[in-house]
Amino acid sequence: MEHGGSAEWLARTLGELARATRSQARLQVLVEVLRRRLCCEVMVIDLRGSILTSSPPRISSKPKAVLGAYREGGGADGFRIAPVEMAGEVLALVAANTAEPVQEVLEFAASLISLELGRLQARLVGRREIAGRVVEDVVRSRVPDTEAVARLRSAGVDVEVPFRVLVGRVDCSVERLTSIPWNLHALLTDHGDPQLRVVLGEEIVMVLPDDQLAERTARLTLDHLNRLGPNGRVGLGNRRSGPVGLRVGYFEAAAAARLGNGVQHSGALRLSSVLALSAPSVPLRDLSRMLLRPLLDYDEENGGELVRSLHAYLRLDRAVNPTAEQLFVHRNTLRYRLNQIEELTGLRLDSTADTVDLWIALEALSGH
Description:
Layout: H1 7-20, H2 26-38, E1 42-46, E2 51-55, H3 63-71, E3 80-86, E4 89-96, H4 103-139, H5 145-154, E5 163-169, H6 174-179, H7 184-188, E6 196-200, E7 203-209, H8 213-228, E8 233-236, H9 242-257, E9 262-265, H10 271-278, H11 284-302, H12 306-315, H13 320-327, H14 331-345, H15 352-365
Parallel strand pairs: 8-9
Antiparallel strand pairs: 1-2, 1-4, 3-4, 5-7, 5-8, 6-7
């Protein structure tokens, strides 16, 4: 290597790397500059150990060994490694097959790669936002069905062919939900999403072909969401077609996602679930919190289980024994809790109108 640790070599190398980002094939040119300046094999790998790009194209190095060494907190023998980060998360590694002190160069290259990934992700998010407005208009019945078919087709979805709707949720910010790429290979080749994938509010919504890939996509989506935050949950709707099918499929999948963590499948769609999901102009969640506030406050102050007990009781059709069994409490304990609920809320659990209000309030707050 020509540099001998000189400041002149370092400045020239960093300058060439910066200029490489102005080229058409930014990442490939950047890696080629690294190889020429460092006189060694260079590769960029994702966190599965798959090569995103390398120079030369065929390398003798083993990317999974490099990835394993990085995960164990050290460097691989004969390698220098720098992480590529976006939004505080490591997404890839840039590695050079050399023992020379070139860490500063690799870290600078990693920062340039991160900027390139951010640029491509921002462009993809822009396309998703356009498609997202189309999907939201259809789901909220803002456009006639004939127009909906044409607009969805322009967004890449033929709703006249059977499909399934997927809805994913996770406890993280919308910014994080949109800023972390799903597939670096697809992002770097700018191929976009293989299926329609948009963000509606705090949800990932996908329209999947009705085939065996739907289940696999649901599991991959859950894996991605669990990387972003806790309580990843994915709901899959039933086989549908047409604009009406998209609307129904969305509510099926959204209701299923509220059933619990993991991948959940849609059952019978209840009107109370649709009401809890479909009225953004109505402050339903705020009204629900107001109705349940005495119970929420009691549970918080006393470490109580009133809200959980009420939800289980109504979900099991007000059957005391099955509810007590599910909650692992004596039926007298459950009856005591139910009496507390009536006293605190002023509502009666033998009243259809009161229990409907309580059920809708619980549905509106569940999963949020």
